[in-house]
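Q: What does the assembly look like in three dimensions?
Context provided by user:
Components: two
Sequences:
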Amino acid sequence: MMSKVEPLPISAVWQGFERKSFPAGATIFAEGETGTAAFILLRGDVTFRAGREAGRERALTELKPGQMFGVHAVMAGARRGATAITTHGCEVMNVSGDKLRQKLEDADPFVRYWVDYLSKRIIDLSTQ
Amino acid sequence: MDPVPPHEPRVTLFVTILSLFLTATLLVGAGVAVSDYIQNRRNAIRLASETFEEKIGRINERRLAFFAAPVLIAQQFHDDPILQQPAGSKDVNLKMIISSLALNPQISAVYAGYGNGNFFHVLSISDAEKEFVSQLRGPASTRYAIQEIRTDGGIRKGSWRFLDADGRQIGLLGDQVATFDPRGRGWYRDARAQPEKLVRNVPYIFATTSQIGMTLARAFDGGAVGVDITLERLMAFVRSVRSNDQQRFVAFDDQQRLLAHFDPERMFKRHPGQNGALELATTEDLVDPVVRQAMRSFSREGPYSSATLEVAGSEYIATVARQVGRDGGLFFILFAAPLSDFMGPLADAASRSFLTAAMIFLLSLPAIIYFAHSIARPLRKLSKEAEMIQAFQLTGPVKIQSRVREVNTLIRSMSGMKGTIREVSKFVPKALVRELLRSEGSLEVGGDTRRISILFSDVRDFTEISEGMRPEALMVNLSAYFEELASLIIQENGTVDKFIGDAIFAFWNAPLPVARHEHVACMTALKCRAALRRLNSRWTSEGLEPWHTRFGVHVGQAVLGNVGSADRIDYTAIGDTVNVASRLEGLNKFYGTSILTSGQIAAVCAGEFLFRRVDRSQPKGAGKPLDVFELLGALQGPEELRATREMTDLVADWNRVYQVYANGDWLRTLDALHEFAGEHPEDAIAGIYLSRVIGFVLEPPPQDWDGTTHFAQK
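A: Here is the predicted structure of the complete assembly.
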């Protein structure tokens, strides 16, 4: 955990993180969009819905604060597999793709490989 | 048990040297004087002996002169045919007799006694006989009295005629019945018994005048003549022999009968068996202690020319000389005199030599003082120098000069020792050396536990710095850096335990106690940081890279003592407290800080220094978590050490963030950090917390988390 590099000032740490609020019924991202950022639900609710393109949209899962979402599309460079909407409104922290990759870069090579492997495995499973 | 402190002498070297010189001078002076005295005494005894010989000679001369006339007159009268006639007037010779008496005052009377009982007697009247004349009712101006006893018609009759100094008759006592008979007298009998010689009898009491005296008598056919010498007159002679009353003069014959005594009263004694009649004293009757002692020597050894006697604390010199009288009889003269009679002038000489010694002593005193001073002064200075060395004042060489070679050698040795201690003290904690010098103790391996404040310092990225510099330049910079920091620490009563590479390990409150050592350690860290700013500013102006130093400050119990072998001992502190201080210094790297202290330090010093709570950390290997604080500055003091307004605001803002963080509400902490970042965008600790809190949002720590951040590295 102790790093050889000097710790960054808080302003630098904030870079790549962005707090955003969404009103009730707002879409955070839509299925099929290119994933450029991940999100951490800070407050409020987020529900994933899928199958809109196929005309049979269904609710997949409902998130609670403290959960991260939208990571997979960013890490795998894929399109969003679902739409994230908020029913009552929410506050999220936008984690940029660069930030995610930077975090991954900072991580142990083994962990990095493991994350990479899992992402690819998810893609493989979803395309099957 | 404590060793008994040795007696501290109070006498200075100067006084000692001065005393020795003075004692030596006094002893020499006294020795000379005593030797003088002994020599003088010897001379006095010799002088006395010579004087005695001379004295005895003079006594003999006087004796002969004294007795010459009486003897001559006795002889002359013996041969006078008119005086040999028992009857008939003797007036034809009277003038001649009177003139003989006038010329020889030692003769008190001349007379002739005859076989028929007649008696012719001419008496010289001196003061002693005046009473006798007055008893006879003779005129007071009587100078001579003539007694004649004749047998007239079977009756012995006597008469007295009184003459004045010119021989005129001035009185007469007519015929009276005479009771005196010369034939019964000792002188008459002795002279008749030895008709061929002049007889001198021992002193006796004269029948006519009751005076004491002696008689020279000579028999002739039909009678005998006599010449009287009274003791009074003899004593006048004896007194003339003595120079003073302390001198003793006694003459006695071979039968120990006294012939002369300096005290006439002692010449006779009362005979116990004959109605207290007077009789001549003998040497047995002498009572004077000086004379008695002189006589004891005589009894043992016979006559002697000189002997020293000690009587009642006074010294006397005595002699007893054997003499042969005119009549061939033996007699002895005892003469004794106080030694002081002869020592008088010699004693003066001795006192003069004393005076001379005293004068020499007084004149040499300034020189003695000067020499004593010139020996003592460098040693006194050297002693002060030694005290300064003991007080650890080691600057400068020993600048003392002495005339004495050994002292100069000592000065050189002391100077060398001072330099050596100065150099050696650079390798060991100065406080320890000072304590060793002060306590005159020695080092032993061992230690004790004590609460100390520890400071660790380390140069950031020193490896990279050293790789980018020439070794010589690096050593110069490193020395300047250490000099700056170490001298500050020592100045603040700290003990620099050791230099470890670019790190310094120092502590307070050992070996010497330091009051408020936690505060002193904090202040020293701030001073070091300020000093380094100045050093860096100089280096930067010289085109050199600045060095950034991190400090760790902690307080706690540690084992202090001497560790090592008999040849090489290190005074050091060991224990967990030391490790924690070292780790605090290391944590600076992680938190981007320069001075980190433990919670124990912050708890003690928060009233005087500004601290920022940093974290609760547990570096790897540490037994328990550690509250970490950043020391920002002093609340009071010089500006370069004082906390700035910005620092105070930062701590206030941070405390608000930390309070939310401590409650474990991560979303609100994010809010607080967000707000904090707006005010303090460059704060690195907040950055660490931001990363950490985002992580906690995603994956909160366990419910029982105590807030400790664990480090995988030391």
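Follow-up: DSSP finds four helices and eight strands in chain A.
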